[in-house]
Amino acid sequence: MSKKHRVTLHEVAAHAGVSTSTVSLVIRNNPRISEATRKKVFDSINTLGYVYDRVAANLRSQSSGIVGVIVTDISNKFISEFLIGAQNTLEQFGYTVLLGTTFDSVSKQDKLLSTMVEHRVDGLILNPASKSSEKTVKKINELQIPIVLANRELEDANCDYVGIDYVKGAYIAVTHLLEKGHKRIAYLGGIKASSTWIERMQGFQLAYERAGLKLDESLIIDGPPTREGGFDAVSKVLQNENPPTAIFCFSDLVASGVLQGLALHELTPGVDIDIVGFDNIPDSEIYHPPLTTVSSFPRSIGIKSANILYEKMTKSSPEKQRIILKPELIIRETS
Amino acid sequence: MSKKHRVTLHEVAAHAGVSTSTVSLVIRNNPRISEATRKKVFDSINTLGYVYDRVAANLRSQSSGIVGVIVTDISNKFISEFLIGAQNTLEQFGYTVLLGTTFDSVSKQDKLLSTMVEHRVDGLILNPASKSSEKTVKKINELQIPIVLANRELEDANCDYVGIDYVKGAYIAVTHLLEKGHKRIAYLGGIKASSTWIERMQGFQLAYERAGLKLDESLIIDGPPTREGGFDAVSKVLQNENPPTAIFCFSDLVASGVLQGLALHELTPGVDIDIVGFDNIPDSEIYHPPLTTVSSFPRSIGIKSANILYEKMTKSSPEKQRIILKPELIIRETS
DNA sequence: CTGAAAGCGCTTACAG
DNA sequence: CTGAAAGCGCTTACAG
């Protein structure tokens, strides 16, 4: 093993006494090579310490074996679970994952999209930033590679999509609160411009309509889909002259901030005020107190996204797919 | 914009009426190209919709612009925070991150290491699997690329390292419990073979020694560094004929499982039994009840790791570095 | 079942 | 300040 020089196919071929084509075929397990030759080549590979150069292979074969996955925030458990599902599935198919995190910034997202294309990714799974604009959609539609959107749908984007039914999720959560007798329910956190926020809002309204109630706009406070966002939103809504008796949170992460804020005001969730989250992240179970929430299925979304992408990358004319998973209500101690 | 064909440097050169070398230099912002030529070339790039092909560039220039980051578990908040730090820093330096998750499996780690090298990553940040063996170390030492280890040190590995002082962290946690009058303290979770477990054990022992106490091996139960691991360990230790009055947990994640297990036995943390975690992940603050824990600094570790790796990738003969961050005790309600 | 030759799309000296 | 030519390390038809 030399220090700087990388062993090439040529050298392996020379050492084994065959042609480079043969070595290439052996490496890729092509069955039309005889067992004897195969063994000879593998011996040479081992003694020379040859390392396959995918960069060269990719240039020649015009595919990279790399899939880009762009998400908004890996420290959000929902997203990290989603990522695990996508990554595991992709790796099983033999792909490697190039990860990008946008922190919900559209400009960062644009940059990542460009970088990934320059790296010739074979496909892309995108969990779009909340404020993705028409410009983003245009860019995505111009991309010449398979792409699937996850968790958040983009209007007019010509892509496959995997997500959950946020309308229904919000509907069951709010209906649960209404059935408990609440008439003033707040909706806290999440970016108003995003499809995920809008769809929850639709479910929220639907539940109100069916109950024959009118909603109070002053109880709807949007903000970043983070713990801080939840903390700020609850602080604001508690200053309302007629404060809510229950809160529907955009996500469990937002709910965690809401719980923090309530503790500060010495309000006990489930007693003084009812709270419902969204996502059912594992930690919601050990929040203080354990959080009632809507269960979505991030890992399944990741797996499904990867499967669809794989089909798009390998089949010639796959059908466009749109998969919507059904949510469930998990009742714990905050309601 | 044609549908299948990718525009090449050649075509841009022809369109702009210059040579490919010139286009190449323009793209890479080489200052020795005149402003006029530069503009002409950029115009052609835009009208043709040219996309830079890094795969080709990388093959020729023998560097990929990609850094591999291999971690044990992105759904662990400590790790995801670490990743954010590393990734942000690396991206600022212009690198793209190829992510690998081992789920603490050594064989998966081996495979990922190979894949990354085949993709010609320029450098590697490795958060080693708990049971990484001598074989792993040998493999790492043979790698011809810069590599920095994070969070867990590997004996005899010839690498830079960034982590925190686990001995001291465990020492301050256990001393805190001893000062509260506890004499039977359990140590739950974590893999016995890993440096992170061993170092905490050393701190644990040191605290006991200074207090003039002898430790009881039956209160030391190792296991996977996960919530499930914590749950299982606490279930076991509670069956001890002389159960502990306090528990030092390998990590906050383990502590979350311990809290779950205690709830099942109707023991109230901070009242019936004291608990201390390790990591100070954001959620520990809203655990039920809020967890006393040792604060480590995952994001800083990520940032430091990336900085050191960058130096190694760019400087010719950097000094070997070993950075150990100091932990702090955060007292909340479980003790 | 195996080999000789061309080429993927860039960058790199080198020449002018 | 710019161009012609070689080459990075593979894979891909094609021929035998």
UniProtKB/TrEMBL annotation, chains A, B:
Residues 7-61 form the HTH lacI-type domain. One of its GO terms (molecular function) is DNA-binding transcription factor activity. SMART domains: HTH_LACI (SM00354). SUPFAM superfamilies: lambda repressor-like DNA-binding domains (SSF47413), Periplasmic binding protein-like I (SSF53822). Keywords: DNA-binding, Repressor, Transcription, Transcription regulation. InterPro entries: HTH_LacI, Lambda_DNA-bd_dom_sf, Peripla_BP/Lac1_sug-bd_dom, Peripla_BP_I. This is LacI family transcriptional regulator.
